[in-house]
Write a structure and sequence with these properties.
The protein is 37% helix and 22% strand. It has 180 residues and is α/β, with parallel strands linked by helices. The longest helix is centred in the C-terminal third of the chain and has 17 residues. The chain binds S-adenosylmethionine.
Length: 180
């Protein structure tokens, strides 16, 4: 396969969207975070959710993670002073040392990510949520089902549907179940 085509296919699988999230979806994602003190945004892209997080949670610490160098650079220009990590989501999550609850706000396209990347990312998210009780993941999906299969000690809840987005999306929250 020609290198350019392969590159485009990989980029499409990583992006998983036809357009940036609408302000309605961004707003619904931030509502689902609640009163967060620490937020890590995965797959920030051009920053529609980042913008909403900065304006609605001005006192929370925020790290924005984006793997594509050009998008990470755009984020740095658009949001001066923001902690932008041009890195893979799981690498950043594995290096975090929070002891207070953290909200992971993700736009990662789990249904189209390559399987190995999907698996290591889910493992890192679950490890962080288990390690810091009270933490949660806020994730949107275009599919009529949960964004990914979580382990048995976790529970998904759908918070809302956002019709004013192309395509319409559901906002879901993942939290670990209290130990039996
Ligand atoms: C669906 S787009 C969302 C962009 C933006 N947050 C929005 O809502 O419009 C997903 C983003 O995740 C990034 N991405 C995909 N896999 C990633 C990974 N493993 N680590 C970090 N970023 C990743 C892609 O480069 C892309 O910018």
């Amino acid at each position: 396969m020609p290198a350019l085509l392969l590159h485009l296919l990989k980029k499409t699988a990583l992006t998983g969207a036809v357009a940036p999230s609408s302000r309605f979806l961004a707003s619904a994602m931030v509502r689902a975070t609640g009163e967060a003190r620490h937020v890590v945004e995965l797959g920030a892209g051009t920053g529609p959710v980042t913008k909403e997080l900065r304006s609605r949670l001005p006192n929370a610490s925020l790290i924005a993670v984006e793997i594509q160098p050009s998008l990470a650079q755009q984020l740095r220009s658009r949001f001066p002073g923001l902690d932008v990590r041009q890195d893979l989501a799981h690498e950043v999550l594995d290096g975090l040392v929070y002891t207070d609850p953290v909200v992971v706000v993700s736009s990662l396209p789990f249904r189209s990510l390559p399987k190995d990347m999907h698996d290591v990312t889910v493992t890192s998210i679950e490890r962080l949520l288990r390690r810091v009780p009270g933490s949660k993941l806020v994730q949107f999906t275009y599919q009529p089902r949960a964004p990914f299969e979580a382990s048995a000690d976790f529970q998904w809840n759908k918070t809302c549907s956002v019709w004013r987005n192309a395509p319409p999306a559901g906002v879901w929250v993942l939290q670990s179940l209290p130990a039996a």
